[in-house]
Specification:
- There is one protein chain.
- The protein has about 800 residues and is of the alpha/beta class.
- Helix content is about 55%, strand content about 10%.
- The strands form 5 sheets. Strands 6, 7, 8 and 9 form a 4-stranded mixed sheet that branches.
- A hairpin with a 5-residue loop joins strand 8 (about 315-325) and strand 9.
Length: about 800
């Protein structure tokens, strides 16, 4: 027998097994939106080639609506690609990278033919860019019935129709099997919807049937099966062994289908509108850098978008802000994009890639807003400068909420008195909250005092009142945290002193005893009480502004007005508020038995010995050295940080403010605003705008419908409701441009919060695409919840070849 069968050694078996080809999987990075950067379809591995085709078919051809196509001289004239060609030729794709046109069908399904056929290489590999003869070339490429292009189109249609495939014919199932499959798939979709809307994890540690920790998806599906007899007939043991539809891959595909349909609804809202970008930075649970993009737009006939981009230390987050058909300002989240680093060049490349996948273009940008990081706001090499070099109409606005936080931080350190006060405040918070025991004592004592006051009638119950709370630590990067710290310290004053007394009495460490005793002495000083009341008033004023700036429907005109009002209030406080503050502090001190000094007595100047003879009155210390220094520093920083309000652009936009019957309306300034956005207002438009403005202002001033209008957002809504946006389209276009200018990165901050909910320490290994799909569905849950099941099921079916096909039913 040995002469017929050669013996094989164990080493040769191992060698042959190691030479087996590893399974090739499709990566999201393999799908490139720009047709000029794609590798040919025949260069993909055979195992994933059909997956690549389906991925591109789901995305559709890359057609940049609203893009400013570059012009180049061809013959005697300057010519460019025309957007109208997309409507005439549905197969047409455009590459921004190399300014060339491609054929979508030929790229995916071209058949081996003679290379002399016109368009075989031009429209698939090289790219066509002879715009002078474009229409003739496109028609010649389409050719006759049996042309290469039409054959590729037919192959595409057959490929999309899985019911006509050979595999479906050989594995055709009965009508009952299809109905059972639909019920099973719908049940899985309902479970997926619930988990996505609640931001719950899908997977468990062990998903076998005997496991007690199979994960939320399988556990909820089992519960669903028990509650619904119809579902029980088609799940688990009642489903074919090769069509259970509960694998991790199926779960991810269903979530991806949900996310893609949600994004499609958002992109339909965007259409061909203009937009702006806003960028911020943070970090996710796996210490990856992310960039988040938010889009803000005004949806109407010529509406505008704002894209707010945020950098989460290796991702970009995209959200859209827009004014819908009724004139309301809305913000939508588009997705996250992983970036290798946070340099301006990397952020721009990532942003361009994300734009390309969503059919957006940087040429449609009309604004940028960042938090102040040098890699973004840099005047010469930052992201905003790189975008401005490409599109000079993408005006940069520094995030107002971040600027305000910078003002608060500076004021918190403006003088040695205030800096010393916040140092002691931090020490108090740390000492009282150093252990669970002290925290419990603080909460219990505060609770007992609230109960006593309720029983005596000093305070009353009500919705949201008298909630359990604790001391909060101030942070330079947390909006409103300084004010929150002082409010809670003031509210829990007696309880804090009680805990410090307990620490001083019971602590075994002498350092802790000494520290607690010193803090009690410091708190029960007039200086500490005075600065606390002063900072409560000052930070309370800025905190109201901060919360107003973080509203989703906030616009640049209203934000500037709020800043002006805040400055006026602070100036009034500086000129007239000292005496009132002093009396308030004295009343507090008498209630808390804190000694009040005689304001005419003298004490050494701060930082001086009594022997130097440099003495000042108490009144001078509190009025000049503390009160005036804090208010002057605050006003100075407000003017420095919000210098944008004095720029020519915002001065022109301020003329649209409807307050006091358009008291700020300036005909020439609004014409100047149109000239600033010259790409959106042609010379012909400017000529008509001049007469339209005169008619417009007379109309709205004499109309009772606009008499009670006090802000631009409300005015835009009324314009649509009264259909005046159709009567004055050019004026409404100016209003839209003003509304989309970014004010704050609040939406991106909310996206960061959602990311922390979705990607936790226990789920810190989530892949970028999986996290992106979860975030889209969770953040835009209102849109996601309204999408019909059938749309998601059909997209899920088309993502790959399925064993059973669904008959499409109408929505």
């Amino acid at each position: 027998m040995e002469k017929y069968y050669k013996p094989t050694s164990r080493s040769s078996e191992t060698e042959s097994s190691s030479q087996k080809k590893a399974r090739v999987e499709l990566s999201p990075s393999d799908i490139i939106a720009d047709p000029g950067l794609r590798k040919p379809i025949d260069e993909y591995d055979n195992e994933i080639r059909d997956q690549v085709r389906r991925a591109y078919l789901l995305n559709g051809p890359t057609q940049q609506i609203g893009h400013t196509f570059p012009r180049k001289k061809q013959g005697d004239h300057f010519r460019s690609f025309q957007e109208s060609w997309f409507k005439k030729f549905d197969w047409l794709e455009y590459s921004v990278e190399n300014d060339s046109a491609y054929c979508f069908y030929c790229y995916l399904f071209k058949q081996p033919v003679r290379t002399d056929k016109f368009g075989y290489e031009i429209f698939t590999r090289q790219g066509f860019n002879n715009w002078r003869k474009a229409l003739d070339a496109f028609k010649e490429h389409v050719g006759g019935v049996n042309s290469c292009h039409n054959n590729a189109r037919r192959h595409c249609q057959d490929f999309k129709n899985q019911r006509q495939s050979v595999s479906h014919v050989f594995t055709s199932h009965s009508k009952e099997a299809e109905i059972a499959y639909r019920v099973r798939l719908t049940s899985i979709l309902h479970v997926t919807r619930f988990l996505l809307l609640q931001a719950l994890a899908f997977r468990g540690h062990n998903e076998t049937s005997s496991s007690s920790n199979r994960g939320n998806f399988l556990e909820l599906l089992s519960w669903y099966k028990e509650k619904n007899p119809e579902v029980a007939k088609v799940l688990y043991e009642n489903a074919p062994g090769n069509n259970q539809m509960t694998s991790p891959l199926t779960q991810k595909e269903m979530v991806k289908a949900c996310a893609q349909e949600t994004s499609l609804v958002i992109l339909d809202e965007l259409g061909d509108k203009l937009f702006s970008v806003l960028v911020d930075e943070s970090r996710d649970a796996s210490i990856k850098e992310q960039m988040a993009v938010v889009v803000r737009l005004v949806t109407n006939t010529s509406s505008l978008i704002t894209i707010i981009v945020s950098n989460i230390l290796n991702f970009i987050v995209v959200v859209c802000r827009f004014v819908n058909q009724t004139g309301h300002v809305i913000e939508r989240f588009l997705g996250i994009e992983h970036v290798s680093d946070t340099t301006a060049s990397s952020l721009k490349v990532a942003l361009e890639g994300l734009f390309a996948r969503h059919g957006l273009s940087i040429s449609r940008l009309r604004g940028q807003g960042y938090d102040g990081a040098s890699n973004m706001r840099g005047e010469f090499n930052g992201l905003q400068r790189r975008i401005l070099n490409e599109n000079p109409y993408a005006f940069y606005i520094h995030c107002f909420a971040h600027q305000l936080q910078l003002v608060v931080v500076v004021v918190a350190k403006c003088s040695s008195y205030v800096a010393d006060f916040f140092n002691y405040t931090t020490l108090i918070v740390n000492t009282v909250g150093a252990s669970c025991k002290r925290r419990d004592q603080l909460l219990q004592d505060h609770h007992d005092k609230i109960v006593m006051k309720l029983e005596s009638g000093d305070i009353f119950t009500g919705r949201g009142k008298n909630q359990e709370t604790s001391l909060a630590r101030p942070g330079d990067t947390r909006w409103g945290s300084h004010h929150t710290t002082l409010v809670r310290l003031f509210t829990m004053w007696d309880s804090v002193l009680k805990v410090l007394e307990n620490v001083s009495d019971d602590a075994t460490n002498q350092t802790q005893k000494t520290t607690a005793a010193g803090l009690i002495e410091k708190m029960e000083s007039f200086e500490f009480a005075f600065i606390m009341h002063l900072m409560l008033k000052v930070l309370g004023c800025t905190n109201e502004l901060s919360r107003a700036l973080q509203r989703k429907d906030q616009n640049i005109v209203q934000a500037v007005n709020l800043i002006v009002v805040t400055k006026q209030n602070l100036q009034h406080m500086r000129d007239n508020g000292y005496d009132e503050l002093l009396e308030e502090v004295k009343g507090f001190c008498m209630k808390m038995e804190i000694p009040v000094p005689n304001m005419d007595d003298k004490i050494p100047a701060r930082g001086r010995s009594r022997r130097d003879g440099q003495m000042v009155k108490y009144s001078h210390r509190y009025h000049v050295d503390i009160f005036l220094v804090v208010l002057d520093s605050l006003l100075f920083e407000m003017n420095e940080q919000f210098s944008e309000a004095s720029t020519n652009l915002l001065k022109c936009i301020a003329c649209l403010d409807p307050k006091d019957s358009f008291s700020k309306f300036d005909h020439d300034k609004l014409l100047e605003l149109a000239s600033i956005y010259s790409v959106d207002f042609s010379p012909f438009d400017c000529t008509f705008l001049r007469s339209e403005l005169g008619t417009f202002i007379s109309d709205v001033r004499n109309s009772t419908e606009f008499s009670a209008c006090h802000d631009l957002a409300t005015f835009a809504i009324l314009m649509v409701q009264t259909e005046r946006h159709l009567c004055y389209p050019l004026v409404y276009r100016l209003i839209e441009l003003a509304l989309i200018l970014p004010v704050a990165t609040t939406t991106v901050e909310r996206a960061f919060s959602a990311m922390k909910i979705i990607k936790t320490e226990l789920r810190n290994k989530m892949a970028d695409e999986w996290m992106n799909d979860n975030m889209i569905c969770y953040i835009e849950r209102e849109i996601f919840a309204a999408i019909h099941d059938e749309r998601i099921l059909q997209r899920f079916q088309n993502m790959k070849t399925r064993k059973i096909q669904l008959s499409q039913i109408s929505n």
